[in-house]
Amino acid sequence: MTRYGMAINQTRCIGCQTCAFACKMQNGVAKDMRWNRVLTEGGGVADDAQGQYPNLTRTYLPLACQHCENPACLKACPTGATYKDEMGRVEIDYDKCIGCRMCMAACPYNARSFNWAEPAFVPDFVYGDGQVERRERGVAEKCTLCKERTDRGEEPRCVQCCPLDARIFGDLDDPNSEVSKVIVERKARVLLEEQGTRPQVYYFE
Amino acid sequence: MSGARNSTLTRRSFLKTTGAAAAGLACVGAAGAALSGEVLAPARAHAEGEERTAHLCHQFHCLTGCNLKCTIRDDRITLIEPSDLMVDKKHSTICLRGIGEVAHIYAQDRLKVPMKRVGERGEGEFVQISWDEAIQTIADNLKEAQQKYGEGSVFIRKSTEAGIEFDFLAQLIHADSGGNWGLDRGQANGLGPALGPWSYLSNRSHWEFKDAATIIELSHNPLESAMVWSRPLMDAKEAGTYIVTIDPRFTGTAAKSNEWLPVRPGTDAAIIQGMLKAIVDNGWYDEEFMLARTSCPYLVDRATGKSYRSAEVVAPNPTVVGAEPVGAPFVWDTVTNAPVLYDNATAVPALEGEWTVDGMQLVTEFTLIKEWLDTITLSWAAQTSGIDEQVIVNLADRYANNGPAIIDIGLGGADKYTNADVLGHSTALLVALTGQYGKKGAGLGSYCGLGSNDPSATLNYWVLPEEYHYGESPVAMYDMPYQENNIHAALTFGDAFTLEAGAANDMLEWVKSLDFFAIVDLYHSSAVDYADIVLPACTKFECEENVKQLRDSMGHVMLANGMVAPLFESKSDLQIERLLAAQWGLEDLLPETYEELARFMLDGAAELDPRMEGITYDALLANGGVMALPETGEDYLPDGLAEGFLTPSTRIELYYEYLADQGHGLPVYEDANEAYESNPKKEQFPLYFTQGKSRYRIHAYYSANEWFQEDFGPSLNMAPEDAEARGIVTGDDVRVFNDRGSFVATALVNRSLQPGVLFMAETTYTRYYKEGFLQNVTNSARLERGYSMFFGPQIPYNDVLVEVEKA
Hints:
heterodimer, A: alpha+beta, Alpha-Beta Plaits, 3-stranded mixed β-sheet, 6 helices, 11 strands, 19% strand, globular, B: alpha/beta, Rossmann fold, Dimethylsulfoxide Reductase, domain 2, 4 domains, 6-stranded mixed β-sheet, 23 helices, disordered N terminus, metal ion binding (chain A), ET_IronSulfur_Cluster-Binding (chain A), 4Fe4S_Fe_S_CS (chain A)
């Protein structure tokens, strides 16, 4: 079996937002919407610091769909629009999505966006990978782990573009894959482990 | 527009906010909207249309120059990714600025058509005109000015991101090109006489960072200014290198460092001088290096302050400042007990001492340095810089004794205070006394992509016939509002007037007084509103022909190709220059096309440099526009050594005789012009106002990117203490003001700021501010001794005090 996943090195992540915009471009994500965000932990504003001056720290948290092994969104979806595919990715069949947003309520990572209106695009044309299916009003959308690219044997766009090589993509079911090894060697963790969602996106320092 | 929009989530809050406020930034409605038939519409189909790819070299002002692969569908650039053509895979790079071009190229604030002004200058009222009328009007006005006031009355400058590989018109009509730029060479002014004019750039590769035990990031923030170049620093961090960042702000680079020294703005030199003090007092200096590689043993006449030099033997190089030959220096030979030339092979020079020769009291430079350091104390250094004495001593110990060590300086930051030369000179001393230079893992300079990271190509440059050349530039552009000058008409490619000068109210008043001003630009930049004629240029992704710029970057020669047609009515810089040149009947002196220019640049290059063998125009196109130089690759790590400096004696020369009369033969500390603690002006304007790079911009460029605008606009970062004292919270409109002017920005309360210090990303276009813009408050002071320095006086953009209030 193949179970695609990712490990993100937070020591190397400099919060540059390249992955966030790479994702927006690749997937033709609409105005004011991101599938992938780089959050600053603990702060009130982006690029804030934690601690008392001058003893400060700053940690970035790149956050998108965690492609959980036990996805809360999938269980909440009444139509089967959200599904776990054969490569271990959590995907959405937009034709089946009825816009109930139960998935969004269920996802503990706030990984999903919803098209409340007909999506607006800046620039006003279809940008991004031509293979990516476009979404319309009334459907939920989120990171697909770059389904189109990974099906072609390529890395997700965020992995390809990261200027710091902070993201490692691969097959979690292959103990010899780089991602599997890094997860073991660097004692990578998952977000909100107690939720029991068993994310396939790992973080390490 | 504020950072609040891209709001951060704590682990706890991201649990709490599940549900209603999900990830989509657009998800503003309440949960539970009724389902209707409409929302059950099927998803839209995939994009259709023919696709092709194009490659080009991107930005140069982040000092990276990534090669980008663009996917073009229906003649629109739809996708941009790292190049697949780089031989050296570590150079297959991109950052958000490259990706964001998908939005930026098509931004609504692109200039679309030629325009002429109809309102008052500054009002921004324009009507569309034809290219013919626009070109004719520009030529008529430039000719008229030159007829009335002489050739030198026309100012022409190309600034950021104009087609900088050529600049024809200014030479064709002998225009004034504005002299010194005054940008980011403050430390370089102070380093140059010691280590050579280009020593502000490292002579070794930054991929050596991991070989250093200690790295000092001195006012350098590569993690936000040039993300692509931050990999070597993070590689070093993972390899265990100890990284110290000296910066007033808790920058991205500071956050990844082992130690952050929150220096008071404009006082970095006090830390370096404190380190020097500790190094000399504790004997942590490297005598062998000082004797062999520096001027420490050279003799100086104590009474006159003149160096003691040979009248017959000339030193190998002229001076950096003045370009004049000077005599070879003498040292004191302890064997013969007499002065001998510095390069005498059998002499054993004294490092310290004082002797009488022909009635002169001669001392070594090192003796003078020690005497000068006796006049300063660590407690002074600590009080001035705001950094604890022991922290300074520890850093000195680490730097001198835990090498190899690197000082990586930023271009910007600390350069933007009037006393930046003192910092550069102090740093030169620090390097010279410790020998942290010219060996693996040791070095000095900006490790920024320029300099020695990659081999560079040999290319021909299109030269105009001899009679065509720039006119005199008696006054630097930034001084034009203040010094008498003969400029009556101006043409700028890009926004020179608000980017390359402080105190915008002064500069723009002066611009308003010109008889004529035309601008060629891509976007509706701040200066556009002051122009009489506006010409729309196209981006580097667009051209009238298939190819565009030929550039040399990252050890590869890159020919932009696969261009899309210029959008709207825009034109390429080359065609704009040709249209203008035609008004003087001189267009035939210019290349007709970018292809002709590129062919010219490459033809015969291999005869000049065998490394260029096989890199021809046709070969480049056959290779997608990218070919590597032979040495390019993982192993390219040049051995920049501590010898052969571009100084008179080819060693590091620490005593600046040319400044001795002004009391700066050694880097005697002085306060910045405005930014210092005891400035009485602080009573009225108590806050330091600083600016620097943001990942979302390079200078003002990318301001028009609407993707970036989702995250980022003109925002003022301030410490919680300063905000609270003024009743300001994140998102408030605040007025920033001083005696030079004011503007309104959005407040971001950010713990990363040192109390008392404000920070904004460098200027953006005035149209994005509610009122005024950042340059209204910046400083126009000039360092008088700067006029005798290699790069001239620098614009002290950060040497600024302000007050802030809710708008």
